[in-house]
Design goal:
With 71 residues, the chain is an alpha+beta fold. The chain contains 2 helices and 7 strands.
Amino acid sequence: MREVGVTIEPVELYKILKFEGMASSGGEAKSVIAEGRVIVNGKVETRKRRKIFSGDIIEFAEEKIAIKLRS
């Protein structure tokens, strides 16, 4: 599992996928979320703008990341 640091909370789910390279664009990120291919904290997530906070774990395409707040 890879740890990803964020400087502000919350961050929208599709933005995390886009900026961490898990999806090639914001449009692709929104599409894979809508298709139910993204898991947040062990549950399928279909809300593109779901607010992500420190401690959340995101899984997509064989990759797993943990979100941590950094100052």
